[in-house]
Amino acid sequence: MKLAIVGVTGLVGTTLLRVLEERKFPITEFLAVASAKSVGKTIDFAGKSYPIIGLETAVEMRPDIAIFSAGGTVSLEWAERFAAAGTTVIDNSSAWRMNPSKKLVVSEVNADKLTPADKIIANPNCTTMQLLVAIAPLHRRYGIERLVVSTYQSITGTGVKAVTQYQQEKEGADDVDRVYPHQIFANVIPQCDSFTENGYTKEEMKVVNETRKILGDDSLRITCTAVRVPVWGGHSESVNITFREDYDINDVYALLRNTEGLTVQDDPANSIYPMPLDAYGKDGVFVGRIRRDESAEKSLNLWVVADNLRKGAATNTVQIAEYLVAKNLV
Q1: Is 235 part of the annotated catalytic residue set?
Q2: In contact, 142 and 245? CB cutoff 8 Å
Q3: Of 139, 192, 224, 235, which is the active-site residue?
Q4: What is the pTM of this model?
Q5: Does position 233 have pLDDT exceeding 90, yes or no?
Q6: Using an 8 Å Cβ cutoff, are 148 and 240 in contact?
Q7: Where does the chain have alpha helices with state H?
């Protein structure tokens, strides 16, 4: 198993290295790939030091799997070249997500749809990722009619520049390298990504469009408000669901407790519910505050939390790679 990580020096790339090592992914040859400015440097992984190579060299070495975490521009330029060389690409960017010829995969939800012919596989947006782990089993059982999602997203979702801005503001620096339009320290910003013509941000529309594609239902009515919060690691979501069929709340609890990759943390009497502080560094998705919406028929409220750099990006790509290996699809 020859595995390449493209964008190995970034936040997601370094998280990928930790996840691969922790999960003991079977690697016989590892290729650390990054931009030209990093070529020639080294990076440590699983007790060894590896030289960082460029994309051209990596293509020529024909890895079995290449996990891309280097942004949409790089993915659009290079993913097809890797695929043409026989490599299966798992891409973390938004480049291929809505391409009708590419599958958008959450490992616990629809990995079983993958075939050897899928040479470029798209990883969903981090907010969509954790949402789908929680709602997919509910959709299969009761049929979702309408979905209202409000997200509270960590600064790490923006990248290292956002972390730098937060730290500089926290320290009271006079000259702040700003990636957000406003201060993020001790503040919340109701804008994740840029605005589109309909008044929603790109992040909000990703939740709408990607959820429909993964669930295979374009009739779903979905609305989203995405908010950036001064949290180091972990996205949180308030989710309101209206179903086509009514439900028994005890059945909902049982269904969620038996869902792969999902942990129920729901004991309000003892103030037990998911929080990003507790989800940080973990691979799973956590759900709590499970309760009937008493203002609308057939409706339910959930609170969903996950580490956006792990399950929201790195872990899911590794889980997809694990599935490909287990099913002999590469």
Answers
A1: yes
A2: yes
A3: 235
A4: 0.95
A5: no
A6: yes
A7: 11-22, 55-60, 72-84, 107-110, 126-142, 160-170, 202-215, 249-257, 276-279, 315-326
- pLDDT at residue 247, rounded to an integer: 98
Return d(Cα 87, Cα 295) in angstroms, integer.
51
* Residue in 126, 139, 192, 224 annotated catalytic: 126
Burial group, residue 312, by CB count within 10 angstroms (0-12, 13-18, 19+) = buried
Active site residue 182: no
Residue count (the chain): 330
Cβ neighbours around 24 below 10 Å, total: 8
The span from the first CA to the last CA of the chain, in angstroms, equals 9
Express each pLDDT in 32-70 by its tens digit: 999 999 999 999 999 999 999 999 999 999 999 999 999
C-alpha closest to that of 65 among 89, 32, 101: 89
Query: What sign results for the dihedral spanned by CA atoms 307, 156, 240, 223?
Result: negative
pLDDT digits (tens, 9 = 90+) for 253-284: 999 999 999 999 999 999 999 999 999 999 99
